[in-house]
UniProtKB/TrEMBL annotation:
Residues 2-104 form the 2Fe-2S ferredoxin-type domain. Keywords: 2Fe-2S, Electron transport, Iron, Iron-sulfur, Metal-binding, Transport. It comes from Variovorax paradoxus. PANTHER family: FERREDOXIN-2, MITOCHONDRIAL, FERREDOXIN/ADRENODOXIN. Belongs to the adrenodoxin/putidaredoxin family. This is 2Fe-2S ferredoxin. One of its GO terms (molecular function) is 2 iron, 2 sulfur cluster binding. One of its GO terms (cellular component) is cytosol. InterPro entries: 2Fe-2S_ferredoxin-like_sf, 2Fe-2S_ferredoxin-type, Adrenodoxin-like, Adrenodoxin_Fe-S_BS, Beta-grasp_dom_sf, Fdx_isc. It holds the Pfam family Fer2. SUPFAM superfamilies: 2Fe-2S ferredoxin-like. One of its GO terms (biological process) is P450-containing electron transport chain. Its cofactor is [2Fe-2S] cluster.
């Protein structure tokens, strides 16, 4: 089972984290299943950028981004070449390391 290493984030995982998830799981699902409550305003339907992550290691092991995801990423805060929407980034067999950006473009957060 691949491991996801998450860099520390002041709101979602202040200490950082290391979790495992089965191949075929999206990064967003894996985070949520492990009580790292990353924003996902569109309920993982690839309609917003609130679940944006930067993949620091293992980027090439993930499925390829489709056009809809790439179009949305253009609007993400802090876009980098290794940016993905975590709801669309599907784990393979390789470990990945991610960073959750400090900000998102979502101005009205749920449950806060």
């Amino acid at each position: 089972m691949p491991t996801i290493k998450i860099f520390p984030h002041p709101e979602y995982c202040p200490e950082g984290a290391e979790i495992t998830a089965p191949a075929g799981t999206s990064i967003c699902e894996a985070l949520l299943d492990n009580h790292i409550n990353i924003e996902h305003a569109c309920e993982m339907s690839c309609a917003c950028t609130t679940c944006h992550v930067v993949v620091r290691q293992g980027f090439n092991s993930l499925n390829e981004a489709e056009e809809g995801e790439e179009d949305l990423l253009d609007r993400a805060w802090g876009l980098e070449p290794q940016s993905r929407l975590s709801c669309q980034a599907i784990l393979a067999q390789e470990d990945v390391t991610i960073e959750i950006p400090k900000y998102s473009i979502n101005h009205a957060k749920e449950n806060h």
